[in-house]
């Protein structure tokens, strides 16, 4: 999977008012880490040594389908359920305006998981609503709920992992685990020796219902106990009375109970492990559901807060995360390609300085040249937001550019500024042209063609780098991300056609070259026709302006 935007966000529900609190995203380094869906492709060089390059946000080849799985505790309040449904209704309205699809699965858990498989949000909303509102009771098995939610996402291999979302809502109070409810026969002393499983096991072991001071340390210690005792003291939760009556329940020693993990311990530990596994692959949100039990067993809500990294978010923010890829303020900096080819020749691509083509959801947004920005060679604007500001701006810098925030410097490049949110379901695509300057005339094949950069070839690069500077919904700034690097090639043939010894290998053919050759790029063509076309183009004087980058030593 891509290094993905791993969001573990918490929502604290206040039962008395039904209100929800929110805080900002967590930070890593100088910004948040995502792997924003993106792609870059380049056409093979044509007879004029021009390649058309397309940047796409999200990736052009990505299917516009998303999965959302709600994993809900049976104790989730009606107010919180309604907020989840309101989010889905708003998302439904947004998606219906596109060609995209959102599938929603629901897991309601008590002592086991009750699964409603994926339903189309646009056409099966009523079924989804009924699943969310179903009334069940008896026990709480957070581990089973997460296992079921993870399985749903794992099994849908038709949807990209970056488009999968799991929303886990619970008060965190749990005392059984596994898909089939399982408990640990942990002995403790009350009025007499007992070994039943329940939320009171926590206070019996730790002396109160307060949360630990350090959840990370607690998880490490508990994990060691869980692994040490294995399954020796486990039993099917529903069989407790029968096993107890038969005298066949194998319980931990009561005089060393602190050395063993009880049912609450193992349930929380497994819940944490499963949630982290989900978060490694999918967009995950841990949300604390307020409940009367949570007011008594304080370790439960505290665990959910820890699971989320202490970060809260509203359902509205989750909806925006699902619908939007990027927020306004995001930028792309694309530096033109140059380097040394496989024959040791320097190569250099120049930006074709004419209005690029920009589309949103396949609809072209009119672009016009505008007054050049400060330091720019030329500038183009696309669309109007309605407040006098363009929806997108492109500034071309022939002599290089220094990024304001990070201070990074680039050679000849352009900067595309996004002034509106980018939808997951309406890709933004920018297509522009670059031209290879001074191609070799020596026979041989120069470079290798890789249309989308997926093969990791070493040239000829149409662009040295294209950098996304992402901004998330809510304004969180992400780390810079690189687009793939497509490569192109061309072939110069010996006059008179292929001669013995021509292998088609770039290194061999380049070394076996001779003067007086023909050139082949993406198209086969006659050299005389090429020369004639070149002379005609020169006579046309300026139909297309090619701006050369300042070369540096």
What does this entry look like structurally?
- 24% of the residues lie in helices and 28% in strands.
- The chain has 553 residues and is α+β, with helices and mostly antiparallel strands.
- It is elongated, with a radius of gyration of 30 Å.
- Residues 1-32, 496-517 and 523-553 have low confidence and may be disordered.
- InterPro entries: VWF_A (IPR002035), vWFA_dom_sf (IPR036465).
- Keywords: Membrane, Signal, Transmembrane, Transmembrane helix.
- It holds the Pfam family VWA.
- Residues 1-26 form the signal peptide.
Primary descriptors:
single chain, 553 residues, alpha+beta, seven-stranded antiparallel β-sheet, 12 helices, 33 strands, elongated, disordered N terminus, disordered C terminus, signal, VWF_A, transmembrane helix
Give a brief rundown of this model:
By secondary structure, the chain is α+β, with helices and mostly antiparallel strands. Strand 4 and strand 5 form a beta hairpin.
Q: What's the assembly state of these chains?
A: single chain
What's the total helix number?
Answer: 12
Q: Classify the beta-strand content into a percent band.
A: 25-35%
Helical content, roughly? 10-25%
Number of DSSP E strands: 33
N/C terminus separation: 39 Å
Low-confidence stretches: 1-32, 496-517, 523-553
Largest sheet: 7 strands, antiparallel
Average pLDDT number: 85
Choose one word for the global shape.
Answer: elongated
Structural class: alpha+beta
Protein name: VWA domain-containing protein
Pfam family, one: VWA
Keywords: Membrane, Signal, Transmembrane, Transmembrane helix
Transmembrane segments: 527-547
């Amino acid at each position: 999977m891509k290094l993905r935007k791993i969001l573990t966000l918490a929502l604290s529900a206040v039962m008395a008012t039904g209100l929800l609190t929110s805080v900002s995203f967590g930070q890593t380094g100088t910004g948040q880490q995502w792997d924003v869906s993106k792609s870059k492709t380049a056409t093979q060089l044509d007879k004029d040594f021009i390649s058309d390059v397309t940047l796409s946000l999200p990736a052009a080849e990505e299917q516009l389908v998303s999965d959302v799985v709600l994993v809900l505790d049976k104790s989730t309040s009606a107010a919180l359920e309604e907020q989840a449904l309101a989010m889905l209704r708003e998302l439904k309205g947004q998606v219906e305006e596109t060609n995209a699809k959102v599938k929603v699965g629901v897991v309601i858990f008590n002592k086991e998981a009750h699964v409603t498989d994926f339903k189309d949000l646009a056409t099966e909303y009523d079924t989804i609503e009924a699943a969310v509102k179903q009334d069940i009771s008896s026990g709480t098995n957070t581990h089973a709920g997460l296992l079921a939610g993870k399985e749903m996402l794992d099994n849908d291999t038709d949807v990209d992992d970056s488009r999968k979302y799991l929303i886990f809502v619970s008060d965190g109070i749990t005392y059984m685990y596994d898909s089939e409810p399982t408990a640990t026969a942990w002995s403790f002393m009350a009025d007499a020796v007992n070994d039943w499983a329940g939320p009171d096991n926590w206070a019996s072991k730790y002396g109160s219902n307060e949360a630990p001071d350090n959840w990370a340390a607690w998880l490490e210690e508990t994990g060691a106990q869980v692994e040490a005792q294995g399954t020796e003291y486990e039993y099917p939760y529903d069989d407790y009375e029968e096993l107890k009556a038969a005298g066949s329940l194998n319980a931990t020693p009561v005089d060393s109970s602190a050395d063993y993990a009880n049912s609450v311990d193992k349930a929380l530990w497994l819940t944490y492990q499963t949630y982290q596994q989900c978060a490694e692959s999918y967009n995950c949100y841990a949300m604390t559901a307020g409940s009367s039990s949570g007011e008594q067993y304080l370790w439960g809500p505290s665990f959910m807060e820890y699971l989320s990294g202490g970060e809260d978010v509203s359902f509205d923010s989750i909806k925006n995360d699902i619908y939007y890829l990027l927020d306004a303020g995001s930028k792309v900096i694309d530096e033109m390609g140059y380097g040394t080819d496989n024959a040791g020749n320097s190569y250099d691509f120049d930006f074709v300085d004419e209005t690029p083509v920009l589309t949103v959801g396949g609809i072209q947004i009119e672009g016009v040249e505008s007054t050049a920005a400060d330091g720019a060679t030329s500038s183009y604007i696309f669309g109007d937001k309605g407040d006098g500001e363009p929806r997108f701006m492109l500034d071309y810098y022939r002599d290089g550019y220094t990024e304001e925030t990070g201070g990074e410097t680039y050679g000849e490049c352009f900067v595309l500024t996004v002034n509106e949110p980018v939808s997951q379901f309406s890709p933004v695509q920018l297509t522009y042209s670059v031209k290879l300057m001074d191609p070799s005339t020596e026979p041989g094949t120069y470079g290798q063609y890789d249309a989308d950069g997926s093969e990791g070839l070493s040239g000829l690069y149409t662009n040295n780098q294209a950098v996304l500077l992402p901004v998330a919904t809510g304004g969180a700034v992400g780390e810079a991300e690189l687009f793939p690097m497509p490569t192109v090639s061309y072939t110069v043939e010996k006059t008179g056609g292929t001669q013995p010894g021509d292998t088609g290998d770039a290194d061999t053919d380049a070394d076996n070259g001779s003067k007086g050759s023909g050139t082949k790029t993406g198209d086969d063509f006659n050299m005389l026709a090429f020369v004639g076309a070149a002379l005609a183009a020169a006579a046309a004087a300026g139909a297309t302006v090619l701006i050369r980058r300042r070369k540096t030593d």
